[in-house]
Every structure is written in structure tokens, then in C-alpha cells.
């Protein structure tokens, strides 16, 4: 059957989520990020320098989605997801080649010629590592720890500092949600952009964005829970605390609140990932019961692929 490639549209989001959930159900989660990461990456993760439809591409065989790619993430990275039957094949290699070439194109277009094309790969994913090596990539760094825990247990009651409140976000919080993201992650959201490009999108559920509110009314911390009802796995992404309110136990209280919500919505496992060198995050998540399941390894292209099929 012929395989075709096209650009992403907003109407594709539920189909990508459904496809990825099925792939995980069939083959396990090695090499596949949580379903919730799709909307997070597409609507929150790009720099805004190019339209999303230039950076996200869908691969299809007749009417079936068999893969999708993100290019020019963080100004240098790409990510590729392939259905189980094409893992480790020339089809997956073609997806990797296309996404890396698109990323290199936008690096050069944005006059960052000295930046290397990068990606990551699960430490368990030996087929992907082999393909990247063929395309001139080398292991460059440790990237993230992906951690997980079972939800088949009673959860501690959240302890909230006096005067603070844990609640779900509302659309009226859009300005403060933009500001707290900028503070926590050094991003550059305007209130209007966060409202229009995230909160007004069909995928957004304000009840799944949890906030800690300070006594003076400011948002002190936030997290988002993302759900995969097919595989019954909940995810926290992201988790952030404003610099004025750190070391008060707010992230722990929010996450316990979120774990309880996941249980109530039928999730049996929860996951969260963090940079390998982020010791405070690692200790927080470990204290909540999360254990490392996978590592993601950073790969850098040191020898640009010349299009050979060997």
C-alpha cells in the first residue's frame, strides 16, 4: 500500500491520541510517550517561530495513521513515533530522516547554523538507536527519567499550608497561568496567547489543570493531569511552582490531589518525567512513590544523512 505524508490540522488531534494509545496497548510503552504529551507538545511546546502545520507531519497508509513527527522542537530537536509493525524498518528510518531534515532546514532558516540536530530515544529502544546510528547520530547526553507508580493503594491526604487553597483552574485564570509558566520555566507566554492557543483549544479541560492559590490570591503553583483511558495511565505534565512560593510543599500537595483525581477517573498507574539532573524533582517524585522506569538518551547528529538507503 502507498504511504503518504501530510501536515497536521487541529482535527487530527483525537486521531493521533487514539492511534498512540492503541500502539501502546499492542506493543507496550517502550519508545512511546504518554498520549497526553501530544496536545502538550503541539499547543504548548513549539517556539511559535513557524506554524504548527509546518512542524508536525502525519504518515498514513491509506486511511490508517502509521506515524507522526515533530520537527524543530526547542529550536533543534525532532521526535518521531511509529506504529508497532513498522518499528525498526525502512519506513521508520524514512520518518526519522524526514523529521531531521525538516529540523535542519528550520535551523538554517533561523540562522542557527551552528546548532546540531538532536533527538531522544528510550534506553530500552534498541531498534531506534540502531536507526539513528545509521543516520549519523551519536549518544550525546542523558536526558530525562520517566518514572511511574501504581495507583492501587490508598493515598495520603494532601497537607496544604495555612491560607493556601488547592483547586482546579478556570478560564478566568488565564493571565496568571501565563505568568506562572513564565516564572517557573522561563517561557514567554502572553496572557492572550495562553488563553487562545491553549485554553480555548478543544483538548483543554480546566478541571485537569490544578493550581495552588496563595493567601493574596496569586497562583503559587500548578500542574496538569493528562489521561490515557485506554491504557489507564495518568500523567503529570508539567509541574511548576512560582519562585516566591518554593519549599512550602505545594507541588506535593497538588500532585497528591491529582493522583486522587486520576484514581477517581479510573487510572491504574501514574507517570511523570523530569530532567535527569533535576535533583529536587527526582526527590519529590520519589517521595510520592514514583520509581524510574526508563531513561531517555539524547542523540546528536554529527554526520548529516546524505539520503543513502544502506
Give the helix/strand layout:
Layout: E1 3-7, H1 13-27, H2 37-44, E2 56-61, E3 64-73, E4 77-82, H3 90-109, E5 118-122, H4 126-134, E6 137-150, E7 165-168, H5 174-185, H6 191-199, E8 209-213, E9 219-228, E10 233-241, H7 250-264, E11 269-275, H8 279-287, E12 291-301
Parallel strand pairs: 10-11
Antiparallel strand pairs: 1-2, 2-3, 3-4, 5-12, 6-11, 6-12, 7-8, 8-9, 9-10
Helix pairs in contact: 5-6
> What is the second-level CATH architecture of the largest domain?
3-Layer(aba) Sandwich
CATH topology of the largest domain: Aminopeptidase
- Separation of the first and last Cα atoms: 22 Å
- Biggest sheet: strand arrangement: 5-12-6-11-10-9-8-7
Content-based structural category: alpha+beta
pLDDT < 50 stretches: none
What is the number of beta strands? 12
How would a textbook summarize the main sheet? 8 strands, mixed
Radius of gyration: 20 Å
Specify the helix fraction band: 25-40%
What value does the average pLDDT take? Answer: 94
Number of domains: 2
| Anisotropy-based shape | globular
Approximately how much beta-strand content do the residues carry?
25-35%
Question: What is the highest CATH level, the class of the largest domain?
Answer: Alpha Beta
Total number of helical segments?
Answer: 8
In CATH terms, the superfamily of the largest domain is Gcn5-related N-acetyltransferase (GNAT)
Order of helices and strands: EHHEEEHEHEEHHEEEHEHE
Amino acid at each position: 500500500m502507498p504511504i503518504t505524508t501530510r501536515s497536521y490540522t487541529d482535527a487530527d488531534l483525537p486521531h493521533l491520541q487514539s492511534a498512540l494509545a492503541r500502539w501502546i496497548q499492542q506493543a507496550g510503552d517502550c519508545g512511546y510517550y504518554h498520549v497526553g504529551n501530544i496536545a502538550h507538545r503541539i499547543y504548548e511546546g513549539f517556539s511559535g517561530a513557524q506554524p504548527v502545520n509546518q512542524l508536525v507531519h502525519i504518515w498514513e497508509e491509506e486511511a490508517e495513521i502509521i506515524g507522526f513527527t515533530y520537527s524543530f522542537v526547542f529550536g533543534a530537536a525532532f521526535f518521531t513515533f511509529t506504529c508497532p509493525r513498522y518499528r525498526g524498518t525502512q519506513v521508520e528510518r524514512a520518518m526519522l530522516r524526514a523529521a531531521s531534515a525538516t529540523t535542519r532546514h528550520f535551523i538554517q532558516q533561523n540562522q542557527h547554523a551552528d546548532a546540531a540536530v538532536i533527538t531522544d530515544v528510550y534506553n530500552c529502544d534498541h531498534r531506534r538507536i540502531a536507526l539513528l546510528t545509521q543516520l549519523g547520530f551519536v549518544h550525546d547526553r542523558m536526558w530525562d527519567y520517566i518514572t511511574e507508580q501504581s495507583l492501587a493503594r490508598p493515598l495520603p491526604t494532601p497537607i496544604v499550608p495555612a491560607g493556601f487553597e488547592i483547586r482546579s483552574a478556570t478560564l478566568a485564570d488565564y493571565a496568571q497561568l501565563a505568568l506562572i509558566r513564565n516564572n517557573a520555566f522561563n517561557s514567554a507566554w502572553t496572557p492572550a496567547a495562553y488563553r487562545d492557543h491553549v485554553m480555548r483549544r478543544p483538548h483543554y479541560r480546566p478541571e485537569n489543570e490544578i493550581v495552588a492559590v496563595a493567601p493574596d490570591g496569586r497562583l503559587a503553583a500548578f500542574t496538569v493531569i493528562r489521561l490515557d483511558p485506554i491504557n489507564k495511565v495518568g500523567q503529570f505534565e508539567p509541574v511548576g511552582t512560582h519562585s516566591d512560593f518554593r519549599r512550602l510543599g505545594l507541588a506535593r500537595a497538588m500532585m497528591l490531589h491529582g493522583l486522587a483525581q486520576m484514581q477517581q477517573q479510573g487510572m491504574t498507574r501514574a507517570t511523570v518525567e523530569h530532567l535527569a539532573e533535576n535533583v529536587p524533582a527526582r526527590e519529590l517524585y520519589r517521595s510520592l512513590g514514583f520509581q524510574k522506569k526508563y531513561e531517555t538518551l539524547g542523540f546528536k547528529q554529527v554526520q548529516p544523512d546524505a539520503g543513502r538507503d544502506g
